[in-house]
Amino acid sequence: MSFISKLSIISIFLIPICVFAQGITDRIPDEPLRVGDKTEAKPQVAMPKIVTQERPKAFVNLLDSLAVEVVLEPGEWEAVYVDVTAGTLGYTPPEPAIDTSLIYLVDWAPLDLQRQLRLNLVRLSPYMSAYYADMLASADPLWLDELYYCLAHLAVEILELDEMSFLLPENVREIYARDSLLSYVEIIDDGHPGGLYHKTYIRYITTDTFVVGWDTVTLDPEMYYRYVMFPKITDEIPRYICPPTGEPADPWTGKFWRTWFWDVAETTGTFECWALGESLATVGALWNGFQNSDTDNGAIGIVSRWIKNSLDFDSDAERPHQPVRIYAKHKGRCGEHADITTAACRTGLIPCRNIESISTDHTWNEFFTGWRWASFEPVNTHVDDQWAYNAGGRNVGTVYEYTGKGSHLPVTDRYSHEIADFNLSVIDASGRPIDGARVMIAMERGEAIYYDCILTTDSRGKAYDMVGDNRHFYWRVDTEIGCNPEPGYVTELVINTFDGATYNRTMDISANLPSHSWVSETPTSEPAAYLGSRIRPLGEFITYNGAFDDISTTFLEWNDDAYGFAMFALSDSQFAMFEAGSSFAALAMVECCDFGGMETAVGNTPHWLVISNIENIRNTLVGTLHVALHDSSTGRKEIEIPDEIGLSVYPNPFNSAVRISFDYGSESAKPSSTSTPDACRVEVFDINGRRVDKLMLDDLGFMNEGRRISNRQSSTNNHKSAIWTPDESIGSGVYLVRVKGLNKAAKVIYMK
Fold this sequence. Notes:
Elements: H1 3-12, E1 34-35, E2 49-51, E3 59-60, E4 62-72, E5 77-83, E6 88-91, H2 100-107, H3 111-121, H4 126-138, H5 144-153, H6 156-159, H7 164-179, E7 185-190, E8 199-206, E9 215-219, H8 221-229, H9 257-263, H10 276-280, H11 298-310, E10 312-313, H12 323-329, E11 331-332, H13 334-347, E12 352-357, E13 362-368, E14 373-377, E15 382-383, E16 400-402, E17 408-410, E18 419-427, E19 438-445, E20 448-456, E21 462-468, E22 472-479, E23 482-484, E24 489-495, E25 502-508, E26 518-520, E27 529-545, E28 554-559, E29 565-571, H14 572-579, E30 584-586, E31 588-593, E32 596-602, E33 607-612, E34 620-631, E35 637-638, E36 645-650, E37 658-664, E38 681-685, E39 691-698, E40 701-703, E41 709-710, E42 719-724, E43 733-739, E44 744-750
Parallel strand pairs: 1-24, 10-11, 18-25, 26-30
Antiparallel strand pairs: 2-31, 3-35, 4-34, 5-6, 5-33, 7-8, 8-9, 12-13, 12-16, 13-14, 14-15, 16-17, 18-21, 19-20, 19-22, 22-23, 22-24, 27-28, 27-32, 27-34, 29-31, 29-33, 36-37, 37-42, 38-39, 38-43, 39-40, 41-42, 43-44
């Protein structure tokens, strides 16, 4: 039968998702997939759109400047007030929307979590905010970085569950309790417990196929937080579970897997199980380097035998994915085995994750050896044998890590010798990139089309997939402003993928993203001042939805790239039009920029500079805004926008500690070690001009002179950060942070 006639049949009849007993336990939607026509993609429009004025030729004096970090959720904007007569810039950050019971505690969270904490917890109810405030205030300081990580990375819908204020401390308490009982692992807390730089590392005694004997390996904090500590595995919701029923229970009668697996020998019928903890406590290495599941293969061997002894490979109508219920039921296919394996490994403080291939209806695990991820499947006694999944001509679709935070991360190159790449774009009717689009990839197998994976676009409208060769793929896109093709259908992506090929595809949505309605305004011919500004994107938080979670969930994940800031200068009257949601006239505009700057002449009346994230509908943008106001009289130097050297303070306002960040755009802008001491001094002044603290910076890093300024922040060659923590002698108010030798300053508001 020709492919054309085959498509005709598929277009008429419903195509079942699968035609055999499902091995995985993901809750794939029941609607069948059909092939339909997608709307033809239009070419992307040129970006960014920039309207600005010619650089002034006059020589001007600096009147005021500021540098602030802006965090803009979709549709949000912030503004800088330009008082030309007074020669000042005014910026009032938005009031923290977090419940007052949590604001102070968030200010003391590890610095790299504070942005995400604020974004996540702003959606938390006052009722649960109070519970988490009590939880943090009463927790052991050693646990705080783990608790903050969970509050930042778990979906708010999960955090709203009453029992989470009990489960999260229990999860961390059990980890520290096991640390003293396991000889192959050691938890290492770095920094002052409960402080801004507190981190937890984890160290193992282990080996690998290329290592002679055993070695000690220390993993970075993210490996510990994400693959050992995190209480969510894939699509299950971390809860206390009643073992006989699998239903949620209260904290006093229900069981959480990390505690239950360690302590309980769940024996039913012919199953003679043992408590996992008593066996793990007897071994001295994470892995002995063998490709078998014997008990002499370190902790990996113990977990393998415990699972083989606890579960039969079988299933009935009930397909649980709660590890507690799986253990009590003693039955499961690959889906149940994968979920209980990750839970068992994390119970033994072994970094582990689930690997999945929906289109081939199989799932298994990987553990981290200390140097690399290795495949692991106790039910089939596979250890470090990834090519078993590509044996016998079994071509895979997408193989991905199924994270506990809603995302599918492709790892296909570890399980297929032949790989093809998909670079996928999603745009609106005007060719603008759509962020947060849900891209569903499907794959043909036999007479059916199967779900393959779910991807989410970044602020550039991009998503990436990595697939096996010799397969037929289809796709569909769902966004906040529409879908393509129509619901229930997929459209052709690639027919017969080839090894080494890269396929670039674009899907367009017939609707348009929100945008500013504006026209260009003619600038004044008699400027009283010049306004210069620049936005430096730092990254974005991509919004993911749990694809198959038991409840609707929304997760945030950091991405170092960012796109979509709009920046424009307005007269006072036009700003009122903008605030009212009407069309407005801009003196200068930069739209959808990667790194945008502009300059404009302003008259002797109030003006505004606006920074906006209106064209992103799902993702949150983070950037540093630099603004400078210069007069138009003859002076000492030409107008400049903060460019080479950036100085920013965050959070602003603050009530306990503030991060002072320096960003040198190039090596030439960086002060040398031969500079005079004053050239590298960071000083903090009150509004009366009195210096209240100081900090010295050399070419190697920071040298602390003041008791209240710390330099524990890690740094790169061109980026440095320090923390100012006012003591009791310093009152609330406005302060000026200045880099003396570089003529850079920023205002900061301290709210005691």
